[in-house]
Amino acid sequence: MFQFRSILSFLFTFYTISIGVIIFIENEDPQTTITWLLVLFIFPVVGFVLYLFLGQNIRKKKIFQKEENIRTKSLEDIAEIQLNAVKESKIFSEEKHSLKKKLISLILNNSKSPVTINNKSKILTNGKQKFKELKKDLSNAKKHIHIEYFIIKNDKIGNEIKNLLIKKAEEGVEVRLIYDSAGSWRLGKKYIKSLKDAGVKVESYLPVFLPGLSRDINYRNHRKIVIIDGNIAFTGGINIGDEYLGKSKKFGFWRDTHIKIEGEAVYALQNIFLNDWYFCTKENLEDLKYFPKLKYYGEQLIQISSSGPDTEWESIMQSYFSLITYANDRVWITTPYLIPNESMNVALRTAALSGIDVRIIIPDIADHVVAFWGSRSYVSELLKAGVKIYRYQKGFVHAKTLLVDDMVASVGTANLDNRSFHINFEVNAFVYDKDIANRLEKDFVKDFKNCDRINYEEYEQRGALQKFKEAIGRILSPIL
């Protein structure tokens, strides 16, 4: 027995040290590296188990080896052409357009996503507007429907969407659905079977049998994308579930934002979906019918930026950073999780210290305890630099929106945290349009009225227990 315990102790020590070495080699982010090493040192058993199930996957490059196809290559070619055109164009020579030029060039480089012109878009405030518009467009679908969500619930709105998809499939419309296997782990076999029986093609993203006990859970598809007939698309913060309609007893009113796009930018979202479909099925849908000839919709400039473990650059994080650092007048942000990495933290504080009107709306209700207290740990230093932080009081705020000056608006799936920037698959729409900026501004102004602005002097008087929770949240937030 003594010999067995000695061998077991040796093996545990060996594996713990090995994991420590792997953590050091794998993680490029110093904050994440230090956090994992600290947890492993203080709580060797817990840290060992946590890293096995939640840590960076050493098979990451193999799992997410980029699968190139005709659409991806053609978009990259277009992006390269546009990048050269933007460099030579006199359109962006005026100072007021310099921000647009910098961001357009950045996304052309880091996402290989062309800037599209023939578009019109519509901001959808909260679930009621989003689902009303979505159900109408799904009902009118003629050829194909592609849907991709992090969370789909087997509840009232979930079944309404399911029944619509079944109806369209029975009418002969091609319907494909991707759901994240961890985010939608309670969906149920009956729900999925009823879709498949009607002819809907359904795939789960990175399937896991026990969502809480799998290393692959660390890479989740957090995207929310719907593409209808190749010319209408939806994306933003709203999943499919009754809570997004304010029907949760815990959260009450649910404040969120989505965007509907018609036009050329839909091609980019279609490309993302088809690449994700290929990852799930190895079925390469090389058919121009998914990229139909489009009528004239308008002249809104829109770029779609996507990021994830399979991309070379942290595209959305870099886009946020660029917008914040080059803002002239204001940076207004809504995020459910305010856990900036060091670069974003410095960018926000520097902007505020430079006289930029930096405002951030965060929840006053916790949906994830570690993230909630991790967010609170950054409040003091941001307030000290002059950032205005508002706690939303009407219910729970889940929107992921960014407004810079009156020129650029972002609506998407990415939170202001480590998971969105480095680990999850995300997608954001960047709209270079004054009307959309003004529309988003109205939402912000209304939200500010439903918020309690945090006072720096009062916040500094918070108790020791809250500071302790913040410290724990800050330590754990980079890895959870």
From TrEMBL:
Assigned GO CC terms: plasma membrane
Location(s), subcellular: Cell membrane
InterPro entries linked: Cardiolipin_synth_Firmi (IPR030874), Cardiolipin_synthase (IPR022924), CLS_N (IPR027379), PLD-like_dom (IPR025202), PLipase_D/transphosphatidylase (IPR001736)
One of the GO BP terms on file: cardiolipin biosynthetic process
Gene3D superfamilies found in the cross-reference section: Endonuclease Chain A (3.30.870.10)
GO-annotated molecular function: cardiolipin synthase activity
Entry's transmembrane regions: 7-27, 33-54
Membrane topology, as annotated: Multi-pass membrane protein
One Pfam family per UniProt: PLDc_N
Domain of life per record: Bacteria
EC number: 2.7.8.-
Principal subcellular localization: membrane
Domain (PLD phosphodiesterase) ranges: 217-244, 393-420
Reaction catalysis annotation: 2 a 1,2-diacyl-sn-glycero-3-phospho-(1'-sn-glycerol) = a cardiolipin + glycerol
Keywords assigned: Cell membrane, Lipid biosynthesis, Lipid metabolism, Membrane, Phospholipid biosynthesis, Phospholipid metabolism, Repeat, Transferase, Transmembrane, Transmembrane helix
Active site: H222, K224, D229, H398, K400, D405
Coiled coil region boundaries: none
Enzyme class: transferase
Family indicated by similarity: Belongs to the phospholipase D family. Cardiolipin synthase subfamily.
Protein function: Catalyzes the reversible phosphatidyl group transfer from one phosphatidylglycerol molecule to another to form cardiolipin (CL) (diphosphatidylglycerol) and glycerol.
PANTHER family assigned: CARDIOLIPIN SYNTHASE, PHOSPHOLIPASE D
Protein name: Cardiolipin synthase
Organism expressing this protein natively: Senegalia massiliensis
